[in-house]
Write a structure and sequence with these properties.
The chain is α/β, with parallel strands linked by helices. The chain is built from 11 helices and 16 strands. A 10-stranded mixed sheet has the order 7-6-5-4-3-2-1-14-15-16. Strands 8-9-10-11-12-13 form a 6-stranded mixed sheet. The two termini are about 15 Å apart.
Amino acid sequence: MHTLTFFPLGNADCCRIKLPNGDRILFDYAHTRDESDKSDKRWDLASDIRDDLKKDKRNSFRVVAFTHLDDDHIHRSSEIFYLEHAEKYQSADRIKIEELWVPAAAIVEEGLTGEARILRSEARLRFLAGKGIRVFSRPEVLEEWLEENGLSLADRQDLITDAGRVVPGISLADDGVEFFVHSPFAHRLDSGELLDRNSDCLFMQALFEVDGIQTKLLLGSDVDHEAIGEIVQVTKKHGNEARLEWDIFKLPHHCSYLSVGPERGDETTEPTDDTQWLYVDQGLKAAIMVSTSKPIPAKGTDDDNCDQPPHRQAARFHKTHTLNREGEFKVTMEHPSCSSPKPIEIEIGAKKATIKKSALGGAAAVISSAAPRAG
């Protein structure tokens, strides 16, 4: 059985995937909790990550993927991970990264500061050394940078994975999961410029298999409706529609209306043809949507009038269609309650995706499960 965990971090991302063999894969890490504020309801991510590894006497992640270098995906990451590029990040209590996954922007982007600059230094060191990293991009995007650093594209070709491919090194046969890359993809990168970090972030489908039953997870990062449209069109062109089916969808950009359509709308956000197809037609029966966000605002409140997500109108669009197919719409800062949010744990097995639910009073956990269905 595989386990996914989404953490209540406000408008910030971290998804932990635990494989049956005990290996862990982490998508993003943003420790947003303010320890000096006792009223802060955001999760103590650092302690959870450390304690979870200690239970299995481990000190490393098999993979840590940073979908892009925005702060809400990397906040305080330099405080917890063992980084090879500088001795100051190498104390014995730090968590090691066996393989780092990043988009090409994390290598070639200039003008970075803070955590983004630190992670860029780590990615560059590993890429130049030729180990412990996988970079997602059209290979030619990295050619000039490699040449400037005394290497050819051929020297690092085996560390680069373009969209439309399965990530090597992790397989259904050996691990019960494989990852298919949707973004960044070729025609956005033909110019060699990476100017839109959100549109050029990692967007993947994880395909799990247990006892012949497949479960599909989409990790949406922060793509907007235009990037989704490009992903959908490229996927259809190559006949890969099954690679955009989903039982679980980590919604893009904290339930922003811009990941659905160009206008917020009054009561609901109207989708484009491509986002309608992805969110509605490709969702399988009893599928689960997860919004890694603050609570959905009530109509007419200050938060409702704010430009920042989550947006009530987008949430209504998603929730309506999720419930129509007997699924669940979950918000990380609302689970199991707004007053006391806790991580959303999803178990993946022969009954596909089931949400582990704990009673508010501290009673023993129970499993909410769906009947097996074709994947």
